[in-house]
Design the sequence.
């Protein structure tokens, strides 16, 4: 089974609009000939529509960094429904990023509701899982990621799983400059794929993209991508500059 890699840039809460547009346009020209992987960037909500318009017809898709658990347009001040994202040209939504779990109290149950809302709106969901440093040190990494997968993906059908991408992001590697070694990442990716085979069948497990995230840089992407179960990357800091993100995309 060949899985087309996805390299996605998570811009988090960075950039004013002019900077976001110029970075996106620079990236567009740097990766215009790329066909070996899918590409996405995730700017803040208020830049999504502008970037979707400016990148229309290019090989760069737009991702949101979050969506509401709620699907009905209703009284939820400050929230954005998944169909509102789809409506303005968004293709993917990142769900359950560790920063949202940690700082905004997102639970696996909320992650599950957000995934269902995203799928109902026709979006693809990039679902983040990963253990903290203490969980790894206590030997609980597989238990933690197994639980995030079990409750996060609960109730999803085989059809639903076609629009699910998993991002393994060890919390201790995010924004810290510490990358998991290719071996450490592969070990968890293999666990995730086996777990998906048990819960959703072998076909789903084999076709689901599993991205690695955590201090991915131009210098370490190639070794990570050589691992059999690593199907791309979710990149934070190194996606903020078009040139370094383009080098990551052109890892081959
Ligand atoms: C992320 O935010 O998803 C991430 C992996 O960040 P960084 O690449 O900066 O570690």
Sequence:
């Amino acid at each position: 089974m060949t899985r087309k890699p996805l390299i996605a840039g998570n811009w988090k809460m960075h950039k004013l609009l002019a900077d976001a547009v110029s970075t996106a346009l620079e990236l567009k020209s740097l990766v215009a000939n790329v066909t070996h992987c899918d590409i996405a960037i995730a700017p803040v909500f208020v830049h999504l529509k502008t970037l979707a318009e400016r990148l229309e017809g290019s090989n760069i898709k737009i991702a949101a960094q979050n969506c509401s658990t709620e699907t009905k347009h209703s009284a939820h001040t400050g929230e954005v429904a998944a169909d509102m994202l789809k409506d303005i040209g968004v293709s993917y939504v990142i769900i359950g990023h560790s920063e949202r779990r940690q700082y905004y109290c997102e639970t696996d149950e909320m992650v599950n509701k957000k995934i269902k809302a995203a799928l109902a709106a026709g979006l693809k969901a990039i679902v983040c899982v990963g253990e903290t440093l203490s969980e790894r040190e206590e030997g609980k990494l597989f238990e933690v990621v197994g639980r995030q997968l079990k409750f996060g993906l609960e109730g999803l059908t085989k059809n639903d799983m076609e629009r699910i991408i998993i991002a393994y992001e060890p919390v201790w590697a995010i924004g810290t400059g510490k990358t998991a070694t290719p071996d450490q990442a592969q070990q968890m990716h293999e666990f995730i794929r086996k777990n998906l085979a048990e819960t959703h069948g072998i076909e789903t497990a084999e076709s689901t993209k599993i991205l690695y995230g955590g201090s991915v840089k131009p210098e370490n992407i190639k070794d990570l991508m050589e691992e059999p179960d690593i199907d791309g990357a979710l990149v934070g800091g190194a996606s903020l500059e078009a040139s370094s993100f383009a080098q990551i995309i052109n890892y081959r």
Notes: The chain has one domain: 6-249. The chain is about 40% helix and 15% strand. The pocket of phosphoenolpyruvate is lined by residues 10, 169, 174-175, 213-216, 234-238 (CB under 6 Å).
